[in-house]
Amino acid sequence: MTSALPSAPAFGAALAIAPRPDVLDFLALRRSAPALTLTEPGPTASQLDDMLRIAARVPDHGKLAPWRFVVLAGDAKDVFAARLDAMAQGRGDAVLAAKLGKLKAPPLAVAVIASPKPGAIPEWEQVLSAGAVCAHLLQAALAMGFGANWITDWYSYDPEAVSLLGLAENERIAGFVMIGAAREAPLERERPAPATLVTHWTP
Q1: Domain containing 176: what range?
Q2: Where are the alpha helices (DSSP H) in the chain?
Q3: Cα–Cα distance for residue pair 186/147, rounded to 1 Å
Q4: How far apart are CA 125 and CA 121, in angstroms?
Q5: In a domain, 55, yes or no
């Protein structure tokens, strides 16, 4: 299946900036779908490629691409979840085991790995870029009509759990983006009032 996206622009091509009210409408109403409501069908391989291409177009100071993706799908995702489940059961922790439902339900999970590169660009900026990748991937999935949710849970931070994904010593999981068909429309949740979060600096 061919990509539904425009062809990737050539290096140095002029990319016009113009109003996109359709994008504003989407962002104004964007809503993550609860992971437990996500089911088959998940994205095709071509659709996932498009999502990852969009996710990689984030601000990236120094053009370092200080992140990477680990795709968990099908039998491989089932094995990953089963190993986490065994880990939780071995610790006698039913709470940890129960939290795996959000990983087990969706047909696809993409782990976004923050992978900072040494050099002049501060590590903090590189980690923020990885967070932007999570947000772009989430929005790409939603814009393609899938339900999606950006999740970090105990298996994003637990050293034994993280080791299952083969992370390098300097790498961290920025999040798991769970993707699938939403069984039901997500309900609007409470949102912060921007006016309560804004100050205007004056000299």
Answers
A1: 33-184
A2: 21-29, 45-55, 74-90, 94-98, 101-104, 123-143, 154-157, 159-163
A3: 9
A4: 7
A5: yes
Q: Is 53 among the domain residues?
A: yes
Is residue 162, in this structure, part of any structural domain at all?
yes
- Tell me the pLDDT band of 1, cut-offs 50, 70 and 90: low
Residue 180 lies in a domain: yes
Answer whether 0.85 is exceeded by the pTM. Answer: yes
Query: Looking at residue 72, which CATH number applies to its domain?
Result: 3.40.109.10
User: Once rounded to an integer, what is the mean pLDDT over residues 122-137?
Assistant: 98
70 forms bridges with which residues in the sheet?
Answer: 111
Which string of DSSP letters, residue by residue, matches 142-186? HHTT-EEEEE--HHHH-HHHHHTTT--TT-EEEEEEEEEEESSPP
Preceding peptide of 106 cis, ω within 30°: no
Helices 123-143 and 45-55: crossing angle in degrees, nearest 10, is 140
Report pLDDT for 3: 83
Which pLDDT band, with edges at 50, 70 and 90, does 85 fall under?
Answer: very high
What does the pLDDT read at residue 134? 98
